[in-house]
Amino acid sequence: MLLHGFGQYWRSWRYQIPGLAQAGFRVVAPDLRGYGDSDKTPRGYDAFTLADDVAGLVRSLGERDAVLVGHGYGGVTAFNTAVMKPDQVRGVVAIAAPHPIRMAKVRRPVRSDRYGRLLSWASIPFYPEHRLAAANGALLERIVRSQSGPVWKASRDFGETMAKMRLAIRIPGAARGAVEHLRWVARSPLRHDGHQHREALTRPVTAPVLHMVGDADRFTPASSLTDAREQCTGWYTLSTVRGVGHYPAEEAPDLVTRLIIAHATRAQQP
Questions:
Q1: How high is the pLDDT of residue 109?
Q2: What pLDDT is attached to residue 104?
Q3: Rounded mean pLDDT of the chain?
Q4: In the chain, which stretches have pLDDT less than 50?
Q5: What pLDDT is recorded for position 106?
């Protein structure tokens, strides 16, 4: 199951879907809650509900478990699901995504890094979703461009991708849904569900984990992934993809597909 990141939708996995299917896997790439063609609910963007969404989708498809592949916040959701619904997670591939325990450390009053500044921005009421949808989604393109590697953002594929992403973020309610995922992270430390989440994260990830990051990723650098290994009791592999930024699945699609296939194949072995 392929889980997209902030501001994206299922199409971010367009290069992986055919390759995974040809390798014999059943592949599902949903629009996450609040995005694309999925419901734009007024609430339900907390870590627990999102994990329930993923686990419920696995069950509704008639499967006992799944390998979860997530990018950015989709990767965080994959980790959360692996902690909260371990029996339904066969393996995790987290791309450009820290373990949620790292996010709990980052979301402090002093937010000097890029992720912290994004959380601070998302915590403002109403304004962020208005800005995301304004000017035909121009802000979203600036965000993605600033996080991408030089080769991809100079390509025709980048321009085509941004045109489609800017269109998708203007679907009524989609900009708000995108922000609500981050807004919960920003506001939860002072709330009961945030405390419950931190308690849940004391449990380890028992499923095998492949952690992937681009060496030119300024938003989620490899140094931000150091906590993950300590949270995983199954086998854990960190793979650094050279020459790419925050979007390895689109910047180095063939390599990422091969790595996912290898990990998913290994995770299926008894």
A1: 41
A2: 66
A3: 94
A4: 107, 109-110
A5: 54
User: Which tokens hold the place of 16?
Assistant: 């992986």
Contact (CB, 8 A) for 149 and 244: yes
Q: What is the DSSP string of the chain?
A: -EE--TT--GGGGTTHHHHHHHTT-----PPPTTSTTS---SS--SHHHHHHHHHHHHHHTT-S-EEEEEETHHHHHHHHHHHH-GGGEEEEEEES---HHHHHHH-SS---SHHHHHHHHHTSSSHHHHHHHGGGGHHHHHHHHHHS-HHHHTSHHHHHHHHHHHHHHTSTTHHHHHHHHHHHHHHGGGSHHHHHHHHHTTS-B-S-EEEEEETT-SSS-GGGGHHHHHTB-S-EEEEEETT--S-HHHHSHHHHHHHHHHHHHHHH--
Structural domain boundaries in the chain? 2-268
pLDDT computed for residue 243 by the predictor: 94
Q: What is the CATH number of domain 2-268?
A: 3.40.50.1820
How much is the pLDDT for 38? 98
- Residue 123: the pLDDT is 92
Report d(CA 116, CA 160) in Å as an integer.
29
Give the predicted TM-score (pTM) of the model: 0.95
Rounded distance between C-alpha atoms, residue 92 and residue 236, angstroms: 10
